[in-house]
Structures are given as C-alpha cells and as structure tokens.
Amino acid sequence: xxxxxxxxxxxxxxxxxxxxxxxxxxxxxxxxxxxxxxxxxxxxxxxxxxxxxxxxxxxxxxxxxxxxxxxxxxxxxxxxxxxxxxxxxxxxxxxxxxxxxxxxxxxxxxxxxxxxxxxxxxxxxxxxxxxxxxxxxxxxxxxxxxxxxxxxxxxxxxxxxxxxxxxxxx
Length: 170
Hints:
Blueprint (H helix, E strand, L loop, with lengths): L11 H13 L6 H13 L11 H11 L7 E5 L5 H8 L3 E5 L10 H7 L4 E5 L10 H11 L2 E2 L21
C-alpha cells in the first residue's frame, strides 16, 4: 500500500515554464532564478533571497553566514528531517535537541530556554508539514540572548493542506 502525503498542483503554466527553461538551457541559474529570488525576498519582506539546490544546502549556507563552527552549540528540534541537525554537525558545532509541542510537533520555546548555555549561538526552528513554529516567542528568546535564528522552512510552503496527525492514502 502506498501512502501519499500530498498531491502537487501542476498545470500547463508550470509545464510551459519548465519547457522554457530547457529551451533556453537555463535549468540551474538564469533569469527565472533571479526573478524568483527577488519575488521571494519581496514576499518575505526581506532584503535578499538566495536560491539553493535544496533545503540542506540552504542550512549549510545559513550556518556559514552566521560563522557557526567548532565549539558552538545550536538548538535544534528533536523531531525533523536529519538535515536540520546534521548540518550543525558538519559545521563542527554541537546540536542540542529541544523538545516539541504535543499539539503541533514543532519546537517548544520553553524547551529552547532550558537548553541555552554560554556556548549557544543559534536556534533552528523547523516549520513542519506546513505548521509554523511560535516565531514570536522564539524571536523574543533569541533577541534576549543575542542568538541567531535560522528558520528551516523546507516544509513550510509545502504540505499546507495537511494537519497532524492526518494521513491521506490514495
């Protein structure tokens, strides 16, 4: 039995855009990627948007931008795809696992507070299955403790029609 988590909504407009990219030989970089980065930055109300090949490489890039390395601690969620914590290990830092909330399965700000030490440099909350973390509370903690926040949004935009613990089968 196959259990389908989601069904993409793809139509002629998406097919046309893919065909255009292939026809122009711009499948990795190029004008459409630049346009996407600009529009995404506007949508997120931030100065820059940077495309990467996947969520894992985005986390690597963010950790490097925050100069996180050996000896640093990064608070991560105990319930997520392995990249959320493994990128911390690959940067030479130490992942510190915080508990999740029972109702959302996202990182619990109370647990974050309990895990902070003098070596803590960042928090990586993961918006899981389209369910956002409590960013107001997380940002307040980060501001109070002068910590970076690297939001793992790889699953924030997708799966938004699911609610935990629903499983759809097709």
